[in-house]
Amino acid sequence: MTSEAAQAARELIGRTSEPESRPPITFDEIARYAYAVDDARPSYVDEERAKGGPYGGIVAPPLFTGFTSFPPTAIADLRPDGLPRTRDDPLQLRIPGAQSRYTGTDVTFVEPIRPGDVLTRQSKVVEVEEKQGRSGAMIFTTKEMTITNQHGRTVMIDRTTTATVPQPSSPDGAGRAWGELELGNGAQARPAEPPQWSDEPVWEDVHEGMGLEPLPRFISTVQVFFYGLVKTNSHLVHYDRAYAQVEGLPERIAQGDLSGDMLCQTATRWMGRRGILRSFRGEVRAPAFIGETIMHYGHVSRKWRDDDGTALVELELWSEGSGGRPCVRGSAIVQLPTR
């Protein structure tokens, strides 16, 4: 990509979208998202049991925003890669032949999203950076999205980064960069082991360097389809092996935000039912392929008390694919109960 493209990207900094609101959030939407990411804790999917939980009722999983990835689009308006054609989005970088890829998120959670909430989002371009990658120059754009509820209170601030990359690789190079992948049958969904709530952490018992229980997650065709359905992500790289090879990949891949959600669950499963997730950051380093088991790891990197005495812990998190390939790196800040 040219320096003119980079300059055009920098001119987006500070631009703000128009506020966008959506109909009230429903229990059904929350449950569908929770099942799509395979995180069916009672606070998300069981209305009776949720009444006795920490929030007194149903709340949405942390990375549920209530907004889909793309607006409703007619089939005639889809590009050959399955995505909607570029619309009049003032925050969209337009470079002929280039594609955008999700690379990570940094989310601050202010209060939970509940059924009945009427959410409004507004986004602003806050950062643009040009880097050199394997396929050439890439432009990374970070948008800060603020979501408020019907009371005008902020529920979430999400800084999402996407990379604008050159034309996809040819099929001849498919798989060469990834070595020998250990891929199984990706069609059959395999749920994660249910979390063990019998030994939930208390702040006084946590120490820096303490490891989290490794969490294996199998990437299945079914789960990728479910997640794409709730996010309205129709990019063929997730569903069509032949098209994935057009983009230089040996196999279909999980959505980047699904990979991030799985890493986030490493923290929420560890913190138990009484912990509160305050923030999460995830940076996608490499794709997770359908048919692959991704291992998720973490350890306590810091613990402290806030000025008001709140007991906090920071976790360093990462996931690995076949052969120890780094997939997602991140961190989370968790509020824990005390004695």
State the order of secondary-structure elements, H for helix, E for strand.
HEHHHEEEEEHHHEEEE
Tell me the number of strands.
10
Main beta sheet = 10 strands, antiparallel
Helix content: 10-25%
**Gyration radius over CA:** 20 Å
Give the mean pLDDT: 90
Intertermini distance: 56 Å
The number of helical runs is 7
Indicate the overall shape.
Answer: globular
**If strands are numbered along the chain, what order do they take across the biggest sheet?**
1-3-4-5-2-7-10-9-8-6
How large a portion of the residues is in β-strands, by DSSP E?
25-35%
Low-confidence region ranges: none
Q: Structural class given helices, strands, pairing?
A: alpha+beta
List keywords for this structure.
17% helix; 29% strand; alpha+beta; 339 residues; globular; 10-stranded antiparallel beta sheet
Quickly describe the structure:
The chain has 339 residues and is an alpha+beta fold. 17% of the residues lie in helices and 29% in strands.
Polypeptide structure, described:
The chain has about 350 residues and is α+β, with helices and mostly antiparallel strands. Helix content is about 15%, strand content about 30%. The protein is built from 7 helices and 10 strands. Strands 1-3-4-5-2-7-10-9-8-6 form a 10-stranded antiparallel beta sheet, with helices on both faces. Helix 2 (about 25-35) packs antiparallel against helix 5. The protein starts with a helix and ends with a strand.
